[in-house]
Amino acid sequence: MNKKTKWLLAIAALILLALLAFVAAGPWLAINGIRNVVASGNYGELWRFVDFDRLRENVRPQIQEKIARGILERTGPGGSTDALTGVTDLISKPAVDAMVSPVGVATLLRGSALVRQVSGQKDADGKVRAVDPLKGAKTGYVSPSLFTATVQNAEGQPVVFEFRRTGLAWKLTGIDLPED
Fold it and tell me: Is residue 22 very low, low, confident or very high in pLDDT (cuts 50, 70, 90)?
């Protein structure tokens, strides 16, 4: 093997290694991107890090189940399944659409910072600091194309943020809400 071929192979290996490192770092880049967009208040840029269609598909059945359980607790199990399905769909669709929008996701991620802002709580310098909801999250790869970040909500229950890879990019595609 001549010197030129060795250099070309070395460069190709370095490019491949850099590409693999970029893909492997992708979930953390997405988390950091979401964090920066929410902190800056430029919610229109969340599309770069959140797949809103897939997130809606993931969250809608969870919300519908919570609504159905609430209705069954109040009315008892004797209700019609078709009627219950229609009611939960009617109630959940606008709620999910509002929750899985740039402003809704930003509000969810701002969490306690929003509560502090509404209640008038401020830091010593007079500013309301955004609290990073994914700070201290337990993160890890589930598969080469699925990454999760698990945090505890205020009640100590786990909330799992799912990031999926499409090509080289990673986006938030699911949130596993706590049972109740």
Answer: confident
Interval 62-117: pLDDT, tens: 888 887 777 777 776 665 565 566 667 667 677 777 777 777 777 766 654 444 44
Q: Quick one: tokens of 32?
A: 């950091």
**What distances in angstroms separate CA 55 from CA 21, 25, 59, 176, one per listed residue?**
26, 21, 6, 10
Residue found by looking up tokens 């890090």 in the block: 49
CB-facing half-sphere around the CA of 18: CA atoms within 13 A = 6
As a whole number of Å, the CA-based R_g of the chain is: 21
Label residue 119 exposed, middle or buried (CB < 10 Å: 0-12, 13-18, 19+). exposed
